[in-house]
Amino acid sequence: MRYFIVDDDRASRAMLAQIIEESQLGTVIGEASNGEEAIPQVLMLQPDFVLIDLLMPKLDGLSTIERLRENHYDGKFIMISQVINKEMVAQAYEKGIEFFIHKPINKVEVEMVLRKTEEQYRLKTSISVIRESLSNIESPAIQHSKKSPRDHVLSILNDMGIVGEVGSEDITKIIELLMMDKQRNTPLPPLKELYERVAKLTKNTPDEIIKESKSIEQRIRRTILAAMINLANLGLVDYTNSEFEYYAPRYFEFTEIRKLMSQIKNNEERKVKINIKKFIQVLFADIINKVN
Q: In angstroms, how far is CA 65 from the centroid of its own chain?
């Protein structure tokens, strides 16, 4: 990853650059002490990420981001700030920042945020490449068709950082089955029945179906736990993160998310209750809304 740092505090710039280099997070390709100085350099160098201070003389962070967007810079922004003001945070997210790094700068927080943004950046880039490849072979009619339930499910799982987890395909198949049931106006079946129906897609004998059903449940449980861990990490870094605020209380027992945040913070064993039924029900309801 290629980083550009914009901060009027020279010590902060030096500290961020040192963390990035020593942690092998990428390369710092430039820096500036204010927005006016940064704009021409960022447009010329086109870094993957711009770490930018919120409050600076001459041109503040939000105004700098706006100017760069107007000049078609499409890289990612990470805001640096000691200001904890919900209105300013909300305004920053509206401008398109990815995460906040709080001042005074903490090495652990910087590493966590940058690794997370790098992971999301690589994943989104991969998805974009796949979509571009598919668009070259699809007919115009397919290109302009509505998103399928599978597309919506994968988008939500991607937001939670679990689209690549082994249980994500099981979750997707369950939602597809439920969408078929919805067309027939049948009630939501028990989870055990859903596991068995998914298992029957690949297994034939009763013993194989029972064994695969148990494996499906375990895969989904591990995948949901991974989502909880990802969201708990987001909450620790920035409690006002839009994905954390939306998914954490809706898809999970929020007391368990808070417990997980405490366990992560204190480097304790990650042990929480996982409510698969709630996750599937809320995901199904969200997909119905999106499809409609």
A: 21
